[in-house]
Amino acid sequence: MLLTGQQTTALDAKGRLTIPARFRAVLDESCQGQLVVTVNHDRESLLLYPRHEYEQRAQIINKLSDFDPLERRLKLLFIGHAFDLELDNNARVLVPPRLREIVGITRDVVLVGQHHKLELWDEAAWTRKLDSLFTIGSEVGMSEKLKNLAL
């Protein structure tokens, strides 16, 4: 499964997202339209996973400690904000109002492919984020892992 690229689209008046054709074929094949949406840890976007991909990650996260504050926070964010979704006959999913509110999604959105998941961004927030993406490493230096990475 390979979800790549980005697509600008809009939510309808009811908060439904029509999955663009470029992603729909991959999602139909990999999960038959069974998805899970949750909030990203940085509160900038939502994460939209094929259900089996979400379940794999949730199993790992669920093993984290309830007593370590950082681990518990991640569990509360990733698992506690997850909603099951299913593509309807028009390839739409209802993005839960509470999740839209948490990350500031209004109408115009961008779906960004991240290989095994999609990130759902408010278009204005994505535009601001995009400006900073082209300066990776310029402010704080580059990690050793990135220095040795060949693209």
Write the layout of secondary structure elements.
Layout: E1 6-10, E2 16-18, H1 21-31, E3 34-39, E4 46-50, H2 51-62, H3 69-78, E5 83-86, E6 92-94, H4 97-103, E7 108-113, E8 118-122, H5 123-133, H6 144-147
Q: Can you tell me about this structure?
A:
This protein has one domain: 3-Layer(aba) Sandwich (Chemotaxis protein chec). 36% of the residues lie in helices and 25% in strands. The chain has helices at residues 21-31, 51-62, 69-78, 97-103, 123-133, 144-147; strands at 6-10, 16-18, 34-39, 46-50, 83-86, 92-94, 108-113, 118-122. The strands form two sheets. It has a six-stranded antiparallel sheet. A hairpin with a 4-residue loop joins strand 7 (108-113) and strand 8 (118-122).
Q: TL;DR of this structure?
A:
With about 150 residues, the chain is of the alpha+beta class. It has helices at about 20-30, 50-60, 70-80, 95-105, 125-135, 145, and strands at about 5-10, 15-20, 35-40, 45-50, 85, 90-95, 110-115, 120.
Mean pLDDT over the residues: 92
Structural class: alpha+beta
The total number of structural domains is: 1
Note the beta-strand portion.
Answer: 15-25%
Instruction: Determine the CATH superfamily.
Output: Transcriptional regulator MraZ domain
Q: Could you tell me how far the N terminus lies from the C terminus, measured between alpha carbons in angstroms?
A: 20 Å
| Largest sheet report | 6 strands, antiparallel
The beta-strand count equals: 8
Gross CATH architecture = 3-Layer(aba) Sandwich
Shape: globular
Enumerate the spans where pLDDT stays under 50 for 5 or more consecutive residues. none
Q: Class in CATH?
A: Alpha Beta
Radius of gyration: 16 Å
What is the succession of H and E elements? EEHEEHHEEHEEHH
Number of helices: 6
CATH topology: Chemotaxis protein chec
> Which percent range fits the helix content?
25-40%
Q: Strand order within the widest sheet?
A: 1-7-8-4-3-5
